[in-house]
Amino acid sequence: MSVLLYNTLSDRKQKLEPIQPGEVSMYVCGVTVYDMCHIGHARAYVTADVIYRHLRYRGYDVTYIRNFTDVDDKIIKRANELGVSTREITEKYIQEFHTDMDALGIKRPHMEPKVTDHIPDIVELVKKLVERGHAYEVEGDVYFDVRSFPEYGKLSGRNLKDLKAGARVQVDERKRDPLDFALWKASKPGEPKWNSPWGPGRPGWHIECSAMSMKYLGETFDIHGGGRDLVFPHHENEIAQGEAATGKTFCHYFFHNGFVNIDREKMSKSRGNFFTIREINERYDPEAMRYFLLTTHYRSPINFEVDFTCPACGQPISREDLEARKCPGCAVGLDEAQAALAVRFPSLEEAQRRLYYLYGTRRRLSAFLGKAATGIGELVRQDEVEALLPQFETAMDDDFNAAAALGVLSEAMRLANEILDNQGGRPEAMITSTVQVLERVLQVMSNVLGILERDPQEAIRSLQDRAMALAGLTAEDIQRKITERVEAREAKDFARADAIREELHAKGVELMDGSGGTTWKVVG
Asked: Where along the chain do its domains lie?
């Protein structure tokens, strides 16, 4: 077994060699809890979750820490706007965070430390930096002296000379250098504060993760992760703080997931392309978001496509028309609910369709095993079946390539359906043995990727309900259309019957005619 991890610190893939053989210590930067999580957060924590799951599958005893930043300028601003305490804000959004992460199938870490519970640890770390000459105090504020740490920039590849040349005019003239950053901030009226050797105040942002990671994982630990936006300055500053305080390597491996773009643009509220996990999960099956995020390697950027479609006539509309709440095609105004329905995510709809197929295959395998004879050990297409798990492990061992691993999972599903479709007079016990092996392999893949973990029947029902809601249909609507189609066929109005089938097909409803009548399924 050899797991390769692309290490941002060395800018190459490296074999994972933990400090303690068989054990991995991992810290991932958490959220600042003042608002709902967006799809960029989903990307970051699905990435960390898959890494955590695969390391555990590979037999490592993983200690996984992910923090909450619960004191920050944004939190204070939000609390003041609402006239509530910062604690009310943070406790609310910690709960909301867990709701969103649970919906995405993200496992909870071993610990989720909060900054406000670790003020003494932070103060002690700042004191150590001051004592060692790496930090200085000015009027109750404490700053890290960047020039006291010659290796500053080794994670991001930047050097101090370039950073100095590119620095903007610094507002705070009290600092020795514009690049110096706050470790401790003197208190201001109306802000939370704690006592310190430099007077009442609160921590700076960067110091918190250095203090909490080292408290729980030691002065040197194995893996640190987060979004690409954290490379500089946050993780760069963490390294400087940790190594300046201890004289030891802070962390051996850093991983960073790529950005999420919306229609190939950076997501931002000002562009009107900002989407929270919650608002998407209200319309799409949450597993569809997880599946979609796995289809691109975690280090690459991923693009969320957005379509605007009139829910009344089904025709595309522009962003400008949507903002004006009108559809030129059918000349109707759109109310708030219709405007919300007009925003569609094609990639998530495709992910729902794919999950429908995958869960359908899992259901088919379970049904076969529920009534099958005992296996005899011999396998159908043995070489192909036995190659699946090694192929999956190879993909995941190569820098946690979940996109390639999904391809192996899809191949396993295709093979399962082909074997069940073409039993060809083979002994039932032989088919049973093959299906049992495939089921075990699929279980491993599901556990590592964090998909297909629900009861297939319940998942299929949920996916159909979501697809019907997106299409603006109910089961009664579909049955009424089927009745109209039967009547049209009986009247030999085949053009009308075909038109009804096409109308339903355009909305993701597939009709299946059989000896017992017409049945249907919705796959989006």
From this structure: 17-262, 307-341, 349-456, 475-522
8 Å CB contact between 315 and 330: yes
* CA 232 – CA 205 distance, rounded (Å): 13
What the block records as the tokens of 278 is 């919650």
The H or E element that residue 483 is part of is helix 475-490
What is d(CA 404, CA 232) in angstroms, rounded to the nearest whole number?
29
Please state the pTM of the whole predicted model: 0.93
CA distance 465 to 459: 10
Q: Which of 215-224, 232-241, 468-477 is the least confident region?
A: 468-477
C-alpha to C-alpha distance for 63 and 58, rounded to whole angstroms: 14
CATH fold of 349-456 reads Four Helix Bundle (Hemerythrin (Met), subunit A) (1.20.120)
Report d(CA 238, CA 251) in Å as an integer: 10
pLDDT value of residue 508:
79
Question: CA of 466: how far to CAs of 340, 470, 471, in Å?
Answer: 15, 6, 9
Domain 17-262: give its CATH superfamily.
Answer: HUPs (3.40.50.620)
Contact 441, 412 (CB under 8 A): yes
Q: Which two tokens stand for residue 419?
A: 């074997």
Count of beta carbons in the 10 Å neighbourhood of residue 21 = 7
Q: Which helix (H) or strand (E) holds 405?
A: helix 402-421
Nearest to 348 by CA among 298, 286, 407: 286
- Res 169: pLDDT: 38
Cβ-contact 70, 115 below 8 angstroms: yes
Six-digit token string for 342:
């007009």
Residue 193's pLDDT is what? 96
pLDDT digits (tens, 9 = 90+) for 60-86: 999 999 999 999 999 999 999 999 999
Distance CA 205, CA 238 (A): 10
Residue range 259-292, pLDDT digits in tens: 999 887 777 666 667 889 999 999 999 999 999 9
CA separation for the pair 249, 242 (Å, rounded)? 8
Q: What is the pLDDT of residue 373?
A: 63
CA triplet 147, 74, 226: central angle to 5 degrees?
60
Strands (E), 179-321: 181-186, 201-203, 221-227, 251-257, 260-262, 265-266, 302-304, 307-308
Assigned token pair, 480: 């009424």
pLDDT tens digits, one per residue of 43-55: 999 999 999 999 9
Strand extents, DSSP E, 57-157: 61-66, 135-138, 141-144
